[in-house]
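Lab notebook page, bench 4
Experiment: in silico fold of construct C2
Operator: M.H.
Input chain length: 298 residues
Purpose: comparison with the prior construct
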Amino acid sequence: MTTDFATRLARYRERIERVLDECLQLPDPGTPRLREAMRYSTLGGGKRLRPVLVYATGESLGAPLERLDAPAAAVELIHVYSLVHDDLPAMDDDDLRRGRPTCHRAFGEATAILCGDALQALAFAVLAQDTAPDVPPEARLAMIRILARATGTSGMAGGQAIDLEAVGQTLSVEALENMHSRKTGALIQGSVLLGATAAGVASGPILGALERFGADLGLAFQIQDDILDVEGDPALLGKSTGADAARRKPTYPSTAGLEAARRRANALCDSAIAALAPLGERGALLAELAREVLARRS
């Protein structure tokens, strides 16, 4: 990782922490306990990959960071809501998230369900109510559509449904990639498209290149996640490893083998970077991010 790249990442992450904190200064939080659960789950650290992708894409295309704050916060709020619900006993029944007790362990199952519900609603409110200048109404509406599509049945929720139905089954590689592309990849691709839309790129070869980049990066990220569940360090991951095997969930290593998983993740990373060719030098930061995703150990 170059010094300039590390500096940019740190700047994006520091910024999104401030923006998220402001979003969670709720005038009507329902109850103090619900507000505490929302802040606990959202401000508890994490890689912040999705908002970083919004910032990196948008800034590479010439958008000021102020215009990217709302979509960056919205996509991270959706991601956090998904983690809160995924950790519930009815889903993955996890005890740890980001190195500390999951929301339902800290606040109880009922509050965790409400926390996820409220975070999802807040994400769309943040996008709809944003007052950043130079974002026309049609672009704001497009961002709401992008986030809804990435979150719903054709994206994250649909992928999670497939995941639950696949427990104990053997999936083909094609079916597994479809599941991963929905459950994880859709929101990562959506982050890239949110950044592009906020920057005023609504069609054409640049948008097509970013769609391909986001799709390949999202799938590579989830395959690397599968690999880390096999050989990762729990201290770095902030959660237990081996959970997928214990639950008999199909993963890329269990379906195709660990070496095949590594090869596929590398090929997808290369494909994602190649897709950025129409951007020229503007794609350098996103290419570096793709390499970082593949090299990550947490």
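Observations: Residues 16 and 22 are 10 Å apart (CA to CA). The domain at 3-295 is CATH 1.10.600.10 (Farnesyl Diphosphate Synthase).
Next step: discuss at group meeting.
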